Amino acid sequence: MEVIKAIPLNHYILLSAVLFAIGVMGVLVRRNAIIIFMCIELMLNAVNLLMVAFSAHHGDGKGQVFVFFIMAVAAAEVAVGLSILIMIHRNTETTDVGFLNKLKF
Amino acid sequence: MKALLLVSGLGFLGILSEILNFKKFIYKLSIVGLLAAIVVTFLEWDNPTPAYFNNMVYFDNLAISFIAVLLITGLLWFLMAESIFENDGLQSDKSTLVLFSIVGAVCMVAYNNITMLFIGIEILSICMYVLAGSKKESLGSNESAMKYFLMGAFATGFLLMGIAFIYGASASFDVMEIKAYMSNSPQNIELVYTGIILLAIGLAFKISAVPFHFWAPDVYEGAPIQVTALMSTIVKTAAIAAFYKLFTVSFGSQEIVWSTTLSYIAALSVLIGNIIAVFQSNVKRMLAYSGISHAGYLLLAILANNAAGGTALTYYTLAYSVATIAAFTVVANVASVKGSSDFTSFEGLGKKNKLITISVIVSMMSLAGIPPFAGFFGKYFLFTSYLENHSINLVIIGLIGSAISIYYYFRLIVNLFKGESDEVIPLSLTSKIVLIIAIILTVAMGIFPEIMNGGW
Amino acid sequence: MTHYAFYFLSFLAILSALMVVFSKNPIHSVLYLVLTFFAIAGHYLLLNAQFLAVVHIVVYAGAIMVLFLYVLMLLNLNVDAEPKNKTWVKVAGVLSGGMLMLTLIATFSKAETQALVQKDPSIGVTANLGKILFNDFALPFEISSILLLSAMVGAIMLSKKEAKN
Amino acid sequence: MKELVWLVPVLPLIGFLIISLGKNYFSKSIAGILASVAVLGAFVISLGIFFEMNGLHGKAFTLVLFDWISTGDFKVNIAFLVDPLSSIMLLIITGIGFLIHLYSMGYMHDDEGYAKFFSYLNLFVFFMLLLVLGDNYLLMFAGWEGVGLASYLLIGFWFKNHSYNDAAKKAFIVNRIGDLGFVLGIILIYITFGSINYATVFGEAVNLTSNMPVITAITLLLFVGAMGKSAQIPLYTWLPDAMAGPTPVSALIHAATMVTAGVYMIARSNILYTLAPETLGFVAIIGAATAVFAATIGIFQNDIKKVLAYSTVSQLGYMFLALGVGAFTGGVFHLMTHAFFKALLFLGAGSVIHAMGGEQDIRKMGGLKKYIPITYMTFLIGTIAISGIPPFSGFFSKDEILAHAFQVSPLLWGLGVLGSLMTTFYMFRLFFLTFFGTFRGTEEQHHHLHESPKTMTIPLIVLAVLAALGGFIGVPHVLGGNHWLEHFLAPVFKASEVFAHGHKLSHTTEYVLMAVTVILTIVFILFARNKFVSKNYVPSTDDSKLTFIPKLLTNKYYVDEFYNTIIVKPLNGLASFTYKILELKGINLLVDSVGKLVVFTSSVVRKVQSGNTGFYILAMVVSIVVILIINLFNK
Amino acid sequence: MITTALLFFPLVVGLLLFLLKGETVKKVALGASIVEFLLGVVAFVNFNKGNGLPQYELNIPWIKSLGINFHIGMDGISLLLVGLTTFLLPLIILAANRNSYKNPTNLYALMLLMQFGLIGVFTAQDAFLFYIFWEVALIPIYFIALLWGGEQKVKITFKFFIYTLAGSLLMLVGLIYVYFQTPAPHSFSLTSLYELELTNGTQSWLFWLFFFAFAIKMPVFPFHSWLADTYTDAPTPGTMLLSGIMSKMGVYGAIRLLLPIVPQGIMEWGPLAITLAIIGVLYASLMAMYQKDYKRLIAYSSAAHVGLIAAGVFSLTHNGMVGGVIQMVAHGISAFGLFYVVDILVNRTGSRDLDKLGGIRVVAPNYATAFLIILLASIALPLTSGFVGEFLLMAGIYEYNSWLAFFGGLTTILGAVYMLKSYQKAVLGDKTEISDKFHDLVLQEKIILIPVILAIFILGVYPKPFIEIAEPAVKNLFSLMSITIK
Asked: Which of A5, D142, D517, E199 could form a disulfide with E382 if both were Cys (CB 3.0 to 4.6 A apart)?
């Protein structure tokens, strides 16, 4: 697959940066915890993509292996995050992050 | 290494206890196990072959000291937290999570590969997210877990981004290889810069340094007291140890990149942490802010960028952890009787509760950094290590912070002697043991500050 | 051709990512996210990371997103019931997100201009990855079990209903 | 005998210690006897020393007891210097002191603080002896402040009465003002000469030239001390108030001995003063001014002791006038004669008061002559002596002073004579109002009138003899004497002779001056007699009828009020301002506001922690962006 | 050896006291302090007066990696202050005996710990050790004031603690800085710090770091605002410790650290420091004049005296320095005495308000006499303890600047004003209701006052032994300074 040569590494970096920033933006503008979780997943995926690109660039498999670990972590986080969400929903009937502001100052 | 395995095993035992129905013993088992782990750890001192598993982990003396700090803290924590392992169907879950979090912390301390660091951070974080929410019916606990999780996961994103950039530049996750790469005038300077900064941000979040500290007060306040104790000791110790290793070993030669940023973060942490702590009415929250300011002090060790910083860090984290555990032990006991951990709950306790009084005095003075208690030497070592090759400005800010901190630490002491009260706070045997050990350790470390200065 | 594929996938990923953020219905967000994942999987394929691409689809689209959907259904959140953020919060969010993007772009726009060259196209092959994973990364791999285990224990602990006494 | 000089101060000290520590263990009469014996012992030794000194022709002798303060090049011993000046002072102090002790045994007989009184008297004698015996300025200063303390204790002897306490306090504080000058003077001496030993200082001073600023400064500072202790303008106000103490105290401390310490000090430092003619001029002016000023006040006082007090101030002024015109011998001479006749007058006044049952207002006395004849006679002698009628002692000493004053400036002489005439007038006014005319007191007092007991009259008689004849030790050459005192003291003043210049008066001038003075004095006596005996004038008790000048003088020129307005009140105001405004509203507030600022900042900054996760994350992102941007530009 | 004993004996006993209960505590504490005093006497007797260098040394490594040694020893100045501490403590303990404080165990233990800290400060020969003891001494007194203080105790002790601690933190900065200036391996030992040759610019700012710490402790104007409240509010034993001994720590610190380490800084800023000290003297005297509360009055008078000591020390003259050292001892004794007689007053009458007191001499002549003697010592009457030091101080200040001496000397007048005024108001006058509650000194009070009065006269009449002890150390100090002054 020689053709890929045409694409500068830079573009991968920019692509992940954009995806990452979109994820961040999502976290910032949304109040629904589930959507926020998803945006965080998006951020992690941007990182994954970057890792794979670097891995390919260096011709080094470690980057891809690292992506596995990120996936594992993502899965674990989602599991825990969603169970927290369920727990909260059970107590408060809401998934609104803005609702959680009793602890302050 | 053995300690890592031992504690992991203990964690698995915790799960097994649920299945095999020996929940009742898991608490005592954990304590015995941790004791054994401490012994085992010390046996590994001056390990001739510190690297294990293809350089994944590296148990040199610094790591071992940190592990010792973690395990001692963990042991003290188990002793103080006896009450959360009672009358609750969740004790095996909790002990498992705590033990696993210690495993994660050990990984963070002994890592020699960023993968291990990352996984360690995540193990620790996930356990903490859960533990923060372990008081399921309490809204505070729920909120605490949610906030912690949301922000933790969010910060993880930045951390990972940083790792990715570093990998992109150096093509490696190995601490030593990155070090080699960094010291030979790296190309891809943008990747290096951004990577280091993002890593710093991610780790600063973990040690709750300003401006990434927002989670800490709310989470500390909402979480069950015992969990807060765990968060403010083990998490902080592990994170700062990881931070130290990464930045002084891997990025030590690129000090110019991160020193300014971290200096500002440290200064802000010290000032803002201390200043906001002044106005708190809840002791837990006050300790959270104090924890933020201590994060600032801890950063000095990283900024020092030398071996003395590491030594200072081990000393400081132990001193800080011991004093914090003692403080939380008292807070937990008082709160369980009085129903709240506000300052007012402590009023008049100085009259009839000798042990509590002495513990509060000793731990608060140690946290405030007043000689001859351990906290003073901790700060002192940090400052001197920093001053070995840096100017004095940051130290002065640290001292200003110290002066402010006296205000709120002493407020607790003063509260003990306010008003008249004959109330006696019952202390369980384990709490007493914790307090006595903490007092002895805090004083002994002050009198013999060299005990932590084994050569490495 | 891959050239075009790259830009198409990039466009798709960014667009669907934006849709994730701005969809009003959570279900739609989930579906857009799945779409994003597919686009990213396409990128993996372009980068010769076939195994990873598959795992990616399986884990993210297959497991994680299903979990999301499941929770959405469980909590009956499929309607747009999210309270609106204040406008300035949204503007601030978008602005700071945009600033982050711009900063990163500004940082890297001149960074690595050389084209991405696959030095070793076979690294993405399962066997190679397996070698790395089970030789060098054996310990992290094992420790991951603890991660997953604790996540499991935690998830169970938090989501299980207490017996009211 | 001179080796026993240490016993002279130590005997009264022992007396003081025994009485003050043991007064509960023995009867009070023993206390009086013990005290008197101690002073008598000192007197006997002093006599021995005096005769020895007379035989030695002024060869000084120093007895070093031990190191007091010695560090670096600053060395001060507890050491006693015996020379003509100190030996004569010893005699005056112990002699008159003994007589007054004796007198007090009668006078204080019924007082509940009898033993305490004697212990204080002994303490005073001890300090006074220390003052004159010290061989250095610091030891003199120790005695100087010590007598101040004794004076404080004795003025406030009847401590239940707050106005007495006020007087005591005033005496101490005004003295302290002078003492500050004295201390600074001593320090300056030390800095200039490297020592404060008389021997060293005077030895070196001889080699100095006249008119050096530093010497002027030293002498002025020392003189400030003298102003306080010897009640000169402007620091004299404490002395009239000091009459609050028991009368023997007034006699001993506030007339005969302590107040003359300033004179002694300047006489002792004569060489320094001679080197500073400007200071001498100043001393003379102050002395003359005080002499006249106090005398004018004396004319209108109606309290028997107050009259004597102002007379004392006035007479002290004479002594300083003497010193100021370089007549050191004259100063000491007058010091001595004044000690005799003023002690006599005070004791006589005490006897009168005793007889009157405590009454001190001369307007309520009168005609006492026949009731208390001994007192009357002795008082008459004292009055004549103070007026300067020959051959009573006051004449000789006063004449010597006036003669020297004339030498320097006729104006000073004029002032001196004016003061002297006023003295004559008010003393005879006092005398006539008290002893002549009809009795103006109450019936009860009338019944009570009686002559004082022997212990009181004997000292009166002895002093009367001294007051009458004491002047013969200094009969001037012009009157055919050989001025024994001058010869005796010559070694002390020898050094300053070198610097003294000015022409000797011709005998004719001296005769004229003497004649003028004496005649005028007699005129004034007659005037007083005319007014108070023949016309039976008694000053009104109603002050409101007074015209301007008498009112001004009755109220002592309102000096106390003046000081009160310009010093005491502003000082209190300043204190109040310092505390209430500067301290509480200023420094305290400033310091506290640092703390408050922190708390306030805390209360504001903590609002950032709003509890809103979205905001937290936003803040984090913004921070990250900022950090990245900063690093972007910093690269 | 004897330094070690002097240092640790009170610590050991103090800690043991926490374990005891009841009446034995008082006896043990008193006994221990007397034993400590005897140790002090032994040290005094065996002291080599000719030598200005530290004696009775103990020097063992403490924190090797940072060049910190546990190095203690006493030169003349230390010895005098240690002697003062050991002399006063039995008296303070005895004085505290009469008042029935709650939890006496803790009080006595804290007093002994305080002694430990104070002796530590006075004997430390290592700058770091000095700092440690400096803080250690602060803790017991803080708790004494906090636990047994008056109504405002919380606020006041807080201010006191933070204020003094903030000052000492600055000193710590200075110490760390000079530590890094020592040749590697860095050392904190005083001798190596003394040998430093710092540039003038450095000394200029280092001066302030040290000066603040010491100025607050003394306190020097305008850093005094903690003083009056703390002195007034603290329980009398605490006040005695504070004014009798602790206020000397500041001056001692200046002598031990400030002068020899930054002599050039003193050359530069000494005029300002000495002026501040003199302003403080007058300022405190003026404030004392206004006070109605007797304890507060003495507090301000104490500040005035310490200010004069500071001025004398900063005059950098031999006489000023020796006078300062002697006056530290003398003032310690008279301040203790004054607070004690006032404590008796308060104890019997329940009032410290001068306007409400009076007529006490009628019923208590012995008390009045003792009071007067101590008061006279405080206003520096010759032949009492206050005079020797004050005269030397004045001489020293005069050598420096005559006007300063004049203004400083005004305090002798103002001192007489407020002291005599207060004495008159409190003690003199006719019988009042207050005086009916009063009775004369009892045996225990006599036991306390007699040593004080004896000490006052011994110091006043025969100060030679004390001066002889102080002098070589002072000379040594000056020689150290001249080494460093280039």
From this structure: D142
Interchain proximity C150–B188, CB inside 8 Å:
no
Cβ atoms of residues B196 and B254 within 8 Å: yes
**Which H or E run contains C90?**
helix C87-108
CB pairs under 8 A between A and B: 123
**CB-based contact A98 C100, cutoff 8 Å:** no
- 8 Å CB contact between A28 and D617: yes
Residue range of the domain that includes E167: 2-484
Q: Is E224 on the interface with D (CB under 8 A)?
A: yes
The domain spans of chain A are 2-100
pTM: 0.91
Considering only the beta carbons, identify the residue of D614, D625, D628 that sits closest to C89.
D614
Fold of A2-100: Helix Hairpins (1.10.287)
Burial class (CB in 10 A: 0-12, 13-18, 19+), B259: middle
Rounded to an integer, what distance in angstroms lies between the CA atom of residue E460 and that of residue E231?
26
Number of other CB atoms surrounding residue E82 within 10 Å: 27
Q: Are D157 and D245 in contact (CB under 8 A)?
A: yes
D102 Cβ contact partners less than 8 Å away, ≥ 6 residues apart: D36, D455, D458, D459
Counting the structural domains of chain E, the total is 1
Q: Which of B371, B388, B413 sits opposite E135 (nearest CB)?
A: B371
For residue E165, list chain B residues with Cβ-Cβ distance below 8 A: 370, 403, 406
Q: How far does the CA of residue B143 sit from the closest CA of chain D (Å)?
A: 10
Query: Own/partner pairs for D601-608, CB < 8 Å, 24+ apart?
Result: D601/B275, D602/B275, D602/B276, D602/B277, D602/B278, D602/B279, D603/B279, D605/B272, D605/B275, D605/B276, D606/A105, D606/B276, D606/B279, D606/B280, D607/A105
Q: Decide: residue D438, CB within 10 A, 0-12 exposed, 13-18 middle, 19+ buried.
A: exposed
Other beta carbons within 10 angstroms of residue E241's beta carbon come to 29
Judge whether B111 is closer than 8 Å to chain A, CB to CB. no
List, as ranges, residues 161-200 from E with C-beta within 8 Å of D: 162-163
The C-alpha atoms of residue C133 and residue A65 are separated, in whole angstroms, by: 6
D-interface mutation test, from E223, E411, E428, E435, most D Cβ less than 10 A away: E428
Residue among C85, C89, C96 whose CB faces D622 most closely: C96
Q: Which ipTM did the prediction report?
A: 0.90
pLDDT tens per residue across all 486 residues of chain E: 888 999 999 999 999 988 887 788 888 999 999 999 999 999 999 998 888 888 898 999 888 888 888 999 999 999 999 999 999 999 999 888 877 777 788 889 999 999 999 999 999 999 999 999 999 999 999 999 988 888 888 888 888 888 888 888 889 888 888 888 888 788 888 888 888 888 888 889 999 989 999 999 888 888 888 888 899 888 988 999 999 999 999 999 999 998 888 888 888 898 999 999 999 999 999 999 999 899 999 999 999 999 999 999 999 899 999 999 999 999 999 999 999 999 888 888 888 888 888 888 888 889 999 999 999 999 999 999 989 999 999 999 999 988 999 999 999 999 999 999 999 988 888 888 877 888 888 898 999 999 999 999 999 999 999 999 999 999 998 888 876 554
Angle between helices D393-408 and D304-324 (to 10 degrees): 40
What does the radius of gyration of chain C's CA atoms come to, in whole angstroms? 20
CB atoms closer than 10 angstroms to residue D503? 6
Which residue has tokens 């102002």? Answer: D310
Query: What is C2-116's CATH number, 3.40.1190.20, 3.40.50.720, 1.20.120.1200, 3.30.70.270?
Result: 1.20.120.1200
Helical spans, DSSP H, in D498-587? 507-529, 548-554, 559-563, 569-577
- The DSSP call for residue E56 is E
Domain regions of chain B by residue span:
2-455
